[in-house]
Every structure is written in C-alpha cells, then in structure tokens.
Known about the structure:
- It is a single chain.
- The protein has 19 helices and 13 strands.
- The protein is an alpha/beta fold and about 450 residues long.
- The chain has two domains: about 10-155 and about 320-400, D-Maltodextrin-Binding Protein, domain 2 (3-Layer(aba) Sandwich), CATH 3.40.190.10; about 160-320 and about 405-450, D-Maltodextrin-Binding Protein, domain 2, CATH 3.40.190.
- The strands form four sheets. Strands 3, 6, 7, 10, 11, 12 and 13 form a seven-stranded mixed sheet that branches.
- Helix 9 packs across helix 17 and helix 17 (about 405-420) packs antiparallel against helix 18 (about 425-440).
- The longest helix has 17 residues, at about 10-25.
- It starts with 7 loop residues before the first helix and ends with a helix.
- Mean pLDDT is about 85; it is low at about 1-40.
Amino acid sequence: MCIKKSRFFYFIIMVLIINIILTKSIFYDSNIPLTNIYENNSNDSTIEIITWTDLEGFNELEQKYIDLYNSTYDNYKVKAVARPNDLDSDTITAMMSGSAPDILILSYDEVTTYAYMGLLLPLNDYFNSWEDFKNINPNIIDNFKINDNYYGLPCGEYTMSLLYNKKMFDEKNITIPKEWRWGDFIDIAKKFNDPKTGQYGFALNWNQWGNWWFQMFVWAAGGDLTKLESDGSLTTTFTDPAVIKAGEYYRRLKQEGCIQSNDDLRLDDLKKDFATGKAAMIFSGLDAISDFTKLGMSVDDIGVLPVPIGPGDVNPVQIGGSCYVMHKNISPEKRDAVFKFYELVSSKQYFEDKAIYYQTENIPFLEGQLRLDINYSELVNNAPDDMINMMINSSKLGRTSCYGSSIIAPFIDGAVQKIMTDTNSNIEDIFIQYENDANKQAVPQYNNNFK
C-alpha cells in the first residue's frame, strides 16, 4: 500500500488546481460515483472508513489485513472504492473538498507541503496514547515532525544506494577504503574504463531525472538546492557553493572517463549496462534490486558500497517512500477508526508478514528499518548482508529530497543536462539561468499556497 514518486507534470496540475480552489471556490464534485470493490454489511452503529484502490485491487497481503481489521472491530469497517483515476490532482482536490478517502497515503515529498498548507491533522495525541509507538524508528518519523507536531507515519521506504558488481571488482582486485572520498571514487571508477569493450566505471543518470541523483552530490558538498522557510514557502539556492562544486565534479567524472560515453543513455539503458557487466557501479533504490535480477543478474553479484564522502565531509543518501496521514476533513467520529487501521498495518506482525510475502514473490524486503523491534538480518534471507545492513542504517544516513523537489526538479534537470553537454559553459551562469526560470515559472505559484 505504497505510492511512487510524483512526476513534475502532475504536480504542476495539482498546484494550478489548488490556486483555482483557493481563489475561485471551485470545488471537487464529491458526487462523482465510485465503484465499490466489495459490499460492506454495515449497520447504523458501524463507522465506515473509505480507502482508495486502483483497478488491480489489493494484493493478497493488503486484502488479508483489511479483512483482519473488519473482523477485529464490530463497529469499524473498511470500505474500498476505486480511485477516480491516477492523477495526483485528484488527491489534492479531494482533500480540499472533503471527498478524499479516510485512509490516505502520501509520498514523503508531499507530507511537509500539505502540513504547511493546513491540510493535515497532527498525530501527536494518537502517538502519545499508542503503546507500540515506542517501537517506531524515531530517526525516520522525525522527518515528518514540523513545529513539534507529527504529520506522517511511514509505511514504506526506499534507500538510494551505491551498488557495485562484485565480479567486476574481484577481477580487478579492487578494495574500497572504509572512508573513501570523491577523489578515491574517480581513481577507482577510471580503472574500469575500456573503450574497446565499452566498459566503464559508473552509470550516472544525468540525462533523465537528474535532480534525483544530483541532490546527493550537493549534500555531500555541504549544501542544498532549496530552503524551507518558516511559513512553508520555498527559496531556491541553486548558486549555493555546494551546487557549483557538485556540478564541477559531474564534469570531472565525464572528462576523466568515469561514466558512460554515450550522452543519450537514460535510466533503463544504464540499468541494463549494470546488469550485463558493462558498468561497474550505479545508484539505485534498494527496493529496485529486482530490476537487475529480471535482466539476468544474480542478486549475489550485487554489493552495496558506502557513498563517497564529499567536500562537506558528509555522505548522506536519499530516502523516500510513503506515509499514512490524516487529512483535516476526516469527520471526528472516524478519526479513531482510521488510526486503529494505521496501528494494525504498522505492527510488527504486519511487517513480518510483508517480508514473507515478498519472499514468495522472490523480491528482497528492503523497505527500511521502520520498526526497532524487528531483526531484519534474520527475517530477510534472500538478500546479501551488505544490502540488509544498508537498509537498517539508512535512517541514520538518509535524507528526504530537498524541499519542493517536484517543483524545482525540471529546472535542475535542465541545468545538469546543460553542464554535461556543453562542457565549455560556465557552471554558475547556467544555474543562475535555471534558477531565474524556476522563480518565474513555478516557485511563485507554489509559494502562493502558503499565503
């Protein structure tokens, strides 16, 4: 029951709809018919809470826990309805008008934005009275603490990690230093450069969703791409010295033959290069290991390396995922019922069952150490130890995407593409240009929502 990263196009649609709603009072039509997935035999005393599902319905595990909830509580029932369609704008519009489902999941990126917009309820009282809350990983949940209020209960997480091909490293007898830095990374990546075979060291995804990767290099250099203001608005920081250092490092990776020579390669191409032994290293979410095994790579040949330490003397990784939230228009009589469901699907038993379910699907359960009382080293038996250790420790090293990432992503994408294709251009001038574009085309609309 988790959702994927929002795309910029849909986010822009969302922002436009918010502004229409706020300025013209045009509301989502709550009378649009929704398709019942199954009947609920409720009576007058039953509190019915709504959850959305897509056309494929729930998987076996999700359905099991909905049924368990319905059989556990005599006066609470979950009713599933089909989501009108898959556009993110439906969620925000429904939240504004009060027709959103009671059980609502948002991406990590969305929680902070919607909390500042006043669309979410604080969960403090529920957390304080929930005995099991002591077992929820505080390093993860603190990402959704704003002005002393908690607004999200994480339900699934991915960790961006530096993967490497163990066979390729063994063939060259390469040992990674325990605390390697950007310079060490270049020295090792160059060892795989072979123009005759097309082999190279690092598959760097700069030509598609470049912001997603680039922000980790900016963090390692000691800075960020945006700043969250106290009122929830966004300030761009594209000319932070760390941004320029990260841009210079990208160019150096290209100039010294550390990355792919073909500028047209996109993420799927780079994944294939890694899976087939053409690229020795790649950044990827741990939740996407099956992307490589489906291409014929053995999971035993995939290892996880520490991210090289940058000029900022840090090496954070990007984490993302999904959170249960409670939107402000849930009626008071339904709120307890909703949180009881969140408690159930955040339990130790649920995550243990989820790990077993993943194993039956031959997918490593590497979704983050959301609970402190689960021994993932014992629970996950179809993934190497270094992957499990990275997942367990990601909450200490991990950072959520820069604030407002969906808004600024296309401008960072454009800037990164420009500095990589026009290698004689001035890096700072390029980021100034794209920052100006962002502050004309997207940031004002975004920030108007907090006024």
